[in-house]
Amino acid sequence: MSENMDFSIKYGTLVKYQGPGGEVVIPKEVTAIGEGAFWACETLTSIVIPDWVKVIEEQTFGWCESLERVTLPAGLTRI
């Protein structure tokens, strides 16, 4: 699990993840995941995106070569 200091968040949008990878759970203050937020995070293996996240921008998980599982929310409006 990731600590909030692993995330750079501006106005509810996760703009950059800088944590250790592994299994990541998006924090409650995030309603959108910005373009390239996890770009080239080679240690990311799984991510849980809770129901309060409504938008996932382009290339969010580009070059995340170890990513095996993504849990998407039911209320997602744009990906």
Keywords:
79 residues, mainly beta, 4-stranded mixed β-sheet
Describe this protein's structure.
It contains no helices and 7 strands. It has strands at residues 7-10, 13-17, 22-25, 32-33, 44-48, 55-56, 69-71. The chain has a 4-stranded mixed β-sheet with strand order 1-2-4-6, with no helix packed on it. A hairpin with a 2-residue loop joins strand 1 and strand 2. The mean pLDDT is 94.
Rough outline? globular
Mean pLDDT: 94
- Supply the number of helical segments: 0
Structural class: mainly beta
Portion in beta strands:
25-35%
Number of strands: 7
Question: Termini, distance in Å?
Answer: 23 Å
Oligomer: single chain
Quick one: biggest sheet? 4 strands, mixed
Draw up the topology in text:
Elements: E1 7-10, E2 13-17, E3 22-25, E4 32-33, E5 44-48, E6 55-56, E7 69-71
Parallel strand pairs: 2-4, 3-5, 4-6, 5-7
Antiparallel strand pairs: 1-2
Task: Summarize this structure briefly.
The protein is mainly β and 79 residues long. 0% of the residues lie in helices and 32% in strands.
